[in-house]
Design brief:
There is one protein chain. By secondary structure, the protein is of the alpha/beta class. It contains 11 helices and 7 strands. It has one domain. Strands 1-5-4-2-3 form a 5-stranded mixed sheet. A hairpin with a 6-residue loop joins β4 and β5. It comes from Lentinula raphanica.
């Protein structure tokens, strides 16, 4: 049975870039057609992204260089090339969901049909909270969705139990911000209060709320049995 996160990712994703907004406002400035995998691109890495058997630091790895794998490097370059349109697309997904979130792409996934194109799923803060990864949650909680789009790129291990993760922050074009300022104002006004964005982590070494009472979002520690540290020598070739 698919998880709630994957069910959310696959819901309402067959709509075009124009859904919910005046057709000419988006198409006039976006020349790239972006694809949503409807959660398919996340399925193989589900245990790595949302599993509870291991801590987030053992499932999601941030220190790997992006230029060591051709798939990752190619996708990163493509994101930079289409950043203008991708920033607009991220704004559109925010306006659709009415919640802070991020685009996420699997570097090892391409849309069916022989097209050499990636897919970008949208996960809201609540879905990212299920990862228990501090960086992913804080990225969505702290950014200004009217000004930036957060993009996560991951590469799953052969087993699907771990992923290497990268993050990019893409600026939303100023002309789109001005053109959609009415819709943006309504969506921003409907967001929850800043202090209501609660980061769930499973690392006992992180600072507690009592140590930093003025810091948002709130950090809730979920402690568990400590596990033996593992070394990752072969970043992209091993079954990590």
């Amino acid at each position: 049975m698919p998880s709630k996160t994957l069910a959310y990712a696959s819901s309402g994703t067959t709509t075009s870039l124009n859904t919910g907004l005046p057709r000419n406002k988006i198409n006039e400035y976006t020349n790239v057609q972006f694809h949503d995998s409807q959660g398919v691109a996340l399925q193989f890495a589900h245990h790595a992204l949302f599993g509870r058997a291991r801590k987030a630091k053992d499932r999601i790895h941030w220190s790997f260089p992006s230029n060591k794998d051709e798939r990752v490097e190619s996708l990163m370059t493509w994101i930079t090339t289409v950043s203008y349109s991708l920033g607009t697309y991220g704004l559109h997904r925010f306006l659709q969901s009415r919640e802070r979130g991020a685009l996420i792409a699997n570097a090892d996934y391409q849309i069916p049909g022989g097209k050499n194109e990636p897919a970008f799923d949208w996960l809201t803060f609540d879905q990212l909270q299920e990862t228990r990864d501090k960086i992913m949650q804080e990225s969505a909680a702290f950014y200004d969705p009217a000004a930036q789009t957060i993009v996560f790129v991951f590469l799953p291990s052969k087993s699907g139990n771990s992923v290497a993760m990268w993050r990019r922050k893409i600026n939303v074009p100023n002309n789109m911000r001005l053109m959609l300022q009415g819709e943006i104002a309504l969506a921003m006004a409907a967001l929850r209060r800043e202090e209501d964005y609660v980061v769930h982590v499973d690392e006992s070494s992180l600072p507690s709320r009592t140590e930093y009472p003025g810091a948002y979002p709130m950090i809730i520690e979920e402690t568990g049995k400590p596990k033996k540290k593992r070394k990752w020598w072969h970043f992209f070739r091993g079954d990590w």
